[in-house]
Amino acid sequence: MKWQAILLIDEADVCLESRGRGNAIRSTDKNALVSVFLRVLEYYQGIMFLTTNQVADFDIAIPSRIHISIRYETLKAEQMEAIFTGFLDELDKKGLVHEYDDIKEWLDEDVYKEDLDGRQIRNIITTALGLARAGSGRGQSNKLKKAHMKTAFSNVSAFKRDFNTQMERYKESQQKMIK
Q1: Which residue ranges does the record assign to the AAA+ ATPase lid domain (predicted)?
Q2: Alpha-helical regions (H) of 8-117
């Protein structure tokens, strides 16, 4: 019996990670997992999608077993605009946007020059909508306003900055350990 299915392994990092030395027990288990996965990958007859954002950590044997790789580039301003507009238009159709034109103008002036991915855009919209809904419990409108968008954007931007700073510190500490 054939299933005729496509296999998706989301966040497959642990299966793709470079085998190596380290903590003897954890390293042995991980090495065994990667070795078995390599064998399965080598002889798998169907279509398998693996998602990861840790390409730099791939085991050396992985790339030769991947037939097609898809890399997602940073979004351009037009692409960000299309994603924001898609979300905003859906909310506007439901009567949930109060300052549509003001929001669009603010996005043009301040947001599209930032590096945002689709998830961050979705998070900005859902957080802003949550703020609008929370305000409705205090006698305010539950409609999305520019102020909600600005607050959500500010939060995402601050987190992104903090995260990038921490990643740089981590990379620097790793480099010092190697030397």
Answers
A1: 75-171
A2: 13-16, 24-43, 77-93, 100-106
Asked whether residue 44 carries a pLDDT value surpassing 80, the answer given is yes
Q: What's this model's pTM, rounded to 2 decimal places?
A: 0.73
Instruction: Write the pLDDT tens digit of every residue in 136-177.
Output: 666 668 899 999 999 999 999 999 999 889 988 888 887 777
Nearest-angstrom CA–CA distance, 110 and 97: 19
Query: Cα angle vertex 150, ends 149, 154, to 5°?
Result: 120
Q: Percent helix, strand, coil in the chain (nearest 5)? A: 60, 5, 30
**CA–CA dist 98, 132 (Å, integer):** 10
119-138 residue pLDDT tens = 999 999 999 999 999 976 66
Of 150, 134, 152, whose CA–CA distance to 142 is shortest?
134
Beta-carbon contacts of 1 under 8 Å, excluding residues fewer than 6 positions away, are none
Domain residue ranges of the chain, discontinuous segments joined by +: 6-65, 77-173
Q: How far apart are CA 46 and CA 8, in angstroms?
A: 11
